[in-house]
Amino acid sequence: MTSFLVRRILGAIVILILISLITFYLFYALPRDPARAFCGKICRPETLTLIRHNLGMDEPLFVQYWHWLSGIFMGREFTQFGACPAPCLGYSFATQEPVFSAIVDRFPVTLSLTLGASVVILSFGILTGMLAAWKVGQPLDKIASSTSVIGASLQIYFVGPLVVFAVVDTLGLLPRPSYVPFTEDPLTWFVHLLIPWVVLSIIFTANYTRMTRSQMLEQLAEDYVRTARAKGMSGRSVFFRFAWRGAMIPIITIFGVDLATLLGGAIITEQTFTLHGIGELAVRAVQNTDLPMLLGVTVVGAAAIVFLNIVVDVLYAFIDPRVRLS
Amino acid sequence: MTFPSSTTAETGSDAVDTVAAAAAGSSAAVVGRSPGQLMWRRFRRDRTGLISAAIVLAFFLIALLAPVIAWAYGKDPYTPYGGNQPGLLNQYGYPILPNGGISGDFWFGLEPGLGRDVFTQLVYGIRTSLSIALIVTVLSTFIGVTMGITSGYVGGKTDYVIGRVIDTLLSFPSQLFLIVLVPVVEVALVQPDQETPAWLRYVSICIVLTVLGWATIARLLRAQVLSLREREFIEAARVTGASPGRVIFKELLPNLWTPIIIQATLALPLYVGAEAGLGFLGAGMTEPTPDWGRMFQVGANVYHSDVTYLLFPGVSMLIFVIAFNLLGDSIRDAFDPKTKR
């Protein structure tokens, strides 16, 4: 177990370094010079050189990358901005704030969006899927299959505005989606994020219903279920105490992938509902050619994906004792 | 959108007749059939599959015949009709007529702001987006298949390197990278002093989607090749002295067509969505080229006052993606009747 974890984490770190290297080098292909943007409209060559020096942009690329990388662990000192304590991802060119704190500021928005949606999707999906398996061949079964096809084909930037138009503009039932910190007022937080959660769950829930159902049916056909039944266990106990555990294993895998998609896909969701999360930060960074911000967001996003995969693998071993992590 | 349904109804009933006739004929004598023929026979019997195939075909025809449609309809997607003709847009730039300005002249209404014709915008936008999705599907499938087979068949260090490249690509936050890479590729292709031509964005989007897209199919094919490689018939071919080229093209590839086609049908709607996502985020095709995805961006800005505009790109894309997904399912069933859905 420990050696597995160590190996996976080392592999993850290699991938993260590769991704940050690629992003770092790619961005230097962009035509706009960040130092120029700092310099303003009337820019004397000496000022430009000074700014370049202050930003550390007059050094070779590899040295710059090294400074960035070591800054994460040891912090950095900028002539332009002053100290940047570890973990330092640099200073944003556009907003001149530390990248790390900008990401930390925005993180609760993206996290609330993703976790809230996950709770809705998982609870509804698994519940209806188990119901469908409990009553095989009945209408719920068929509805789930057809809605999952439609749900998977929907685009969030189409459904999102439609739901906002219907619920907010026309009926006035809910406020326009926005983010209010949970710690400030849980109820307002909940009400303002309800529409994004529901829209995300329209797209994802039916798929979980379908998967849970087919997994449950597969488990119920297994030998151990027959044994339990033969020994006199009631159908309900077998269903709710044994079978669902086996059914959850593939669900967790798919959910790990979907969670990464939700976190990474937060760009479009946040843009649709004008929420100011990490995705919106990324879009702004691209528009402003804000290299440090972009690098930070990319690496944090990739880290989320890579580590979620590891968490899924470990969860696997906890649920299914047959899995040996080697 | 009345024409696809009428065509499909006809095709559907025709097919049922031919299948019935074929079934009657086949009982007389045993005929040998290739896997392709078997697949085709199974597919013809699948009603959902045929209807979705007709809808998908209709979309590709619309894309192909966009200039003809626009000529017959008598408008183009570039002229700001609302600005040129008074009485179409109000002072805020929204159509005066209800429902987004739908009328006999403008079937799908007018674009708020510029006052261009929504119908031709959509037809040409579908042309742009579908052609991008098609090009990317072909390219990424080709690269993915080549890499997957090489990696799985050659093994060793090659496999290790390709495997790590695939791992890295699949760990990228892909949406973010799409919007970052499009301008980067554009710059890489054009000298700073040159003017950026209009087709360049098109090429950049194709390149970026391909670069980020091939890894999925490559990983899948690698696994398939790894398991096929150990089978007796491959070993037999090798023992009898078949060259690697022969083993790959004559022995491996025929066994891989099913997963390749299935993956390609899964990928195309995803690329349509990805291209549209780029357009929605403002990183896709630039004005004035009509684009399916950018219509969502416009729609998202105007829906509070004019929700009709958003419905046309939205509903048409929904119909296309559903039809394509169902078609993919039917093709999968036809290739492998044992698969459970």
CATH superfamily of the largest domain in chain A: MetI-like
Helix content, binned percent of chain B: over 70%
Number of strands of chain B: 0
- Work out the helix count of chain B: 14
Using the CA coordinates, give the radius of gyration of chain A. 25 Å
Mean pLDDT of chain B: 81
- Main beta sheet of chain B: none
Distance between the termini of chain A: 7 Å
Q: Helix amount of chain A, in percent?
A: over 70%
Outline the fold blueprint.
The complex is a heterodimer of chains A (326) and B (341).
Chain A: H1 2-27, H2 34-39, H3 45-54, H4 61-74, E1 76-78, E2 82-84, H5 99-134, H6 139-153, H7 156-170, H8 186-220, H9 223-230, H10 235-264, H11 266-272, H12 278-287, H13 291-319
Antiparallel strand pairs in A: 1-2
Helix pairs in contact in A: 1-13, 5-8, 5-10, 6-8, 7-8, 7-11, 8-10, 10-13, 11-12, 12-13
Chain B: H1 3-26, H2 35-44, H3 47-64, H4 66-73, H5 81-84, H6 98-101, H7 118-154, H8 156-171, H9 174-189, H10 199-229, H11 232-239, H12 244-281, H13 292-302, H14 308-335
Helix pairs in contact in B: 1-3, 2-14, 3-7, 3-14, 4-7, 7-8, 7-10, 7-12, 8-10, 9-10, 10-12, 11-12, 12-13, 12-14, 13-14
Could you explain the architecture of this structure?
The complex is a heterodimer of chains A (326) and B (341). Chain A has 2 domains: 2-99, no CATH class; 105-319, Orthogonal Bundle (MetI-like fold), CATH 1.10.3720. Chain A is built from 13 helices and 2 strands, in the order ααααββααααααααα. Chain A has helices at 2-27, 34-39, 45-54, 61-74, 99-134, 139-153, 156-170, 186-220, 223-230, 235-264, 266-272, 278-287, 291-319, and strands at 76-78, 82-84. Chain A has a two-stranded antiparallel ribbon. In chain A, strand 1 (76-78) and strand 2 form a beta hairpin. With 341 residues, chain B is mostly helical. Helix content of chain B is 74%, strand content 0%. Chain B contains 14 helices and no strands. Chain B starts with a helix and ends in a 6-residue tail after the last helix. The model of chain B is unreliable at 1-26 (pLDDT under 50). The interface between A and B is large, with 44 and 41 residues. Chain A: InterPro entries: BPD_transp_1_N, MetI-like, MetI-like_sf. Chain A: The chain crosses the membrane at residues 9-28, 113-134, 146-167, 187-208, 242-268, 293-319. Chain A: Its main location: membrane.
